[in-house]
């Protein structure tokens, strides 16, 4: 099973992707997690990406395309994978189509989580509060200014992907405002 999750920041893509990894036994490939890990390890990519990420802007297509292409080749992706946070631009989607084609792989579905934007800021604030309460480290781009910028980036560059995948017939839209279990059930229904 090869899936893509689409949706604005805070829509619940990461949460749903994690739940599906257990159900299907395939990994969640979050480009945000991969980039944060590169930043923490101070790799060359991490050093290039840090300031861009902190500002809530998008890292270059070239960097993320390469990270994803390498990751997909790992043995744990043999049965499939769930892409969370990639592709995020139409050129990334085109690069992914070509990459999968070259590797002889096909996408099964693109799941878009539809959410009310007013709820997203509240979700981000809740995520920050929960992380702090659990003694964790808050993401450096989970602050109102960077979050607003991430939403703008989403509207300008990522939202057009819905049209891209609707035209290929792969898009499945799910109401992301319901509670977590109901959203998971709906995703399983559209995939069945
Ligand atoms: P996320 O964890 O998906 O919200 O991603 C956090 C940040 O990582 C984003 O705001 C971007 O700066 C960067 N990022 C993650 N995925 C991508 C991508 N596919 N293209 C460009 N930048 C990305």
Protein model, in words:
The relative contact order is 0.20. The protein has helices spanning 13-24, 31-40, 44-54, 61-72, 90-103, 117-133, 144-158, 160-167, 180-191; strands spanning 2-6, 28-30, 81-84, 109-114, 171-175. By secondary structure, the chain is an alpha/beta fold. It has a five-stranded parallel sheet, sandwiched between helices. Helix content is 58%, strand content 12%. It is globular, with a radius of gyration of 16 Å. It has one domain (2-191): Rossmann fold. Helix 2 crosses helix 3 (44-54) and helix 4 runs parallel beside helix 5. It has nine helices and five strands. The site of adenosine monophosphate has 17 residues, from helix 2 and helix 3. Its EC number is 2.7.4.3. Keywords: ATP-binding, Cytoplasm, Kinase, Nucleotide biosynthesis, Nucleotide-binding, Transferase.
Describe the structure using short key phrases.
binds adenosine monophosphate, 192 residues, 5-stranded parallel sheet, Rossmann fold, 9 helices
